[in-house]
Design goal:
single chain, 486 residues, alpha+beta, BirA Bifunctional Protein, domain 2, Rossmann fold, Translation Initiation Factor IF3, 3 domains, five-stranded mixed sheet, 14 helices, 23 strands, 35% helix, disordered N terminus, RNA-binding
Length: 486
RNA sequence: CGGGGCGUAGCGCAGCCUGGUAGCGCGUCUGCUUUGGGAGCAGAAGGCCCCCGGUUCGAGUCCGGGCGCCCCGACCA
């Protein structure tokens, strides 16, 4: 962590105290989180305090997701933080998967509890318990509920946003009449996640199914969106699970169908967390700091007035009018009228915080009835004050598109095909990103590929295998992308 | 969880080896001058040297134990 104070970053920029992204990626990430005031370390191991600027980003992410959840028929509800110990044991795979990570409350009110309470690592069990009470008839289905909450998992190694002991997320829980309906739900929500990641966060992803070894404990099967980070590692960014009848059987979620037969429901669950915010930082940030796509930027535009000479009051007045006009046009604009720092300082400061667009307004602009528009890390342009709303909205749109395309190009360039086990091993060792692997579907072959490469199978995509399994030489049946993962 | 590194002013660090008055840069505060890519001058404030214990006349410094953070690896929803 130690480095010379004030060393200029690699691009010759002025942002101090942020290590170069390429050379010291981990330190760079931590520095951006702290310097941009997204979060700070809490006095509890593995926990963070999310500061207002970071929390605003999370709120904007919530809005983008929540809107999509509502549009697909879901409603929000709240379930308890504490889960009775016995609930975890009902589903065998589930308890095995989560047991090591559960925090237990054993005392309360000054006395030992008769039954310890687990702090939820996820809510499938307690949701299952309640769904069993609520569901009687096929007419009660489907149940489409989403929860915005916090969960706790006792992690050994933590990093801000990417893996914390307590984190914020959403978990959707649905119950359905048929297997087909549950499957459609799980796939639909995966697509919602993909759409959100790509449109709102400008993060391109690989979407598909999880191999058996990587699926959620207790799921029939899991789907995932996987994003690629600049260090060549994959970030599991969202998951959607078809839980089959596993939890329905464990918790007795039964209903009378129209054929008068009692049946178990089919359930799903799906979630994304503030880990997405970590991915956002890594994918778009640079040596100058954070870079935010417009849809989740707390301030989409910062207005910097150049307050010099006699025009001072006129400039400030026009800048205020500008801020009002942009706000009226639905743009999140912030006027930086601080007098204690220079414009140059503000430029660097807001770039470090990732604001997509800067609008400069000085005496010269005022005389010409124009403003200077500068996309973060982009070239200066001017726009007439008369059409500033349109110019700003176009610039924001262009900036967001540019972020996505840059990230997409990076992803595309870092998907490498492997025809042999040796090529897989070499590509992973070189940290080149996702490696496209043909696989026969056998668990033994998967284990062999994992063992040889040190990477894990991140996602099985919907593509036909175009050759033999890399492990055994039998005809390939699936295409799997391997990568080292967060 | 294993190996390594680091905890000293808000931030970045020196001081520790060889025990004896707590230092530097940036930032902060006050005043004046400034303001189109991190402004200048003058003055000032700011410290449980991570915590607990030990050695010593005396510990930021030496010894033991904890806690936290970072890096590499292992493990993992």
């Amino acid at each position: 962590m130690s480095r010379p104070a004030g060393r200029p970053s690699a691009d010759g920029g002025f942002v101090k105290e942020i290590p170069p992204k390429d050379a010291e990626f981990s330190d760079w990430y931590t520095a951006v989180v702290l310097k941009a005031e997204l979060a700070d370390y809490a006095p509890v191991r593995g926990c963070i305090v999310v500061r207002p600027y970071g929390y605003t980003i999370w709120e904007l992410m919530q809005q983008g997701l929540d809107r999509r959840f509502k549009a697909t028929g879901h409603t929000n509800a709240y379930f308890p933080l504490f889960i009775p110990q016995g609930f975890f044991a009902r589903e065998a795979e589930h308890v095995e998967g989560f047991a090591p990570e559960i925090a237990w409350v054993t005392r309360g009110g000054g006395a030992e509890l008769t039954e310890p309470l687990g702090v939820r690592p996820t809510s499938e069990t307690i949701v299952g318990h309640m769904y069993a009470r609520w569901i009687r008839s096929y007419r009660d289905l489907p149940v489409l509920i989403n929860l915005w909450n916090n969960v706790v998992r006792w992690e050994k190694a933590t990093r801000p946003f990417l893996r914390t002991m307590e984190f914020l997320w959403q978990e959707g829980h649905t119950a359905h009449r048929t297997e087909e309906e549950a499957e459609a739900e799980a796939r639909q929500m995966l697509d919602v996640y993909r759409d959100f990641a790509e449109r709102d966060l400008a993060i391109p992803v690989l979407a598909g199914r999880k191999p058996e070894s990587e699926k959620f404990p207790g799921a029939a099967h899991s789907y995932t969106i996987e994003a690629l980070m600049p260090d060549g590692q994959a970030l599991q960014s969202g998951t959607s699970h078809n839980l089959g009848q596993n939890f329905a059987r464990a918790f007795g979620i039964k209903f009378l169908d129209s054929d008068n037969a009692e049946k178990y429901a089919y359930t799903t669950s799906w979630g994304v967390s503030w880990r997405l915010l970590g991915g956002l930082i890594m994918v778009h940030g640079d040596d100058r700091g954070l870079a935010l796509p417009p849809r989740v930027a707390p301030f989409q535009v910062v207005i910097v007035p150049i307050l010099s000479g006699k025009e001072r009051d006129a400039v400030l007045e026009e800048a205020r009018a500008l801020a009002r006009r942009l706000a009226a046009a639905g743009v999140r604009a912030r006027l930086d009228d601080r007098t204690e720092v220079t414009p140059g300082y503000k430029f660097n400061d807001w770039e470090m915080r990732g604001v997509p667009l800067r609008v400069e307004l000085g005496p010269r602009d005022l005389a010409r009835r124009q403003a200077v528009l500068v996309p973060r890390a982009g070239a200066k342009d001017t726009a007439a004050l008369e059409r500033i709303e349109a110019a700003v909205s176009e610039a924001l749109e262009a900036y967001g598109t540019q972020l996505f395309h840059r990230a997409k190009r990076y992803l595309d360039e870092h998907i490498v095909p492997a025809s042999t086990m040796a090529e897989l091993v070499e590509a992973i060792a070189g940290r080149r990103g996702f490696v496209r692997v043909r696989w026969c579907g056998a668990a033994t072959c998967e284990a062999a590929l994992r063992q040889a490469s040190g990477a894990s199978p991140r996602v099985i995509v919907d593509e036909a295998a175009d050759g033999a399994c890399l492990a055994c030489g039998a005809p390939g049946t699936q295409v799997v992308y391997y990568a080292r993962a967060y």
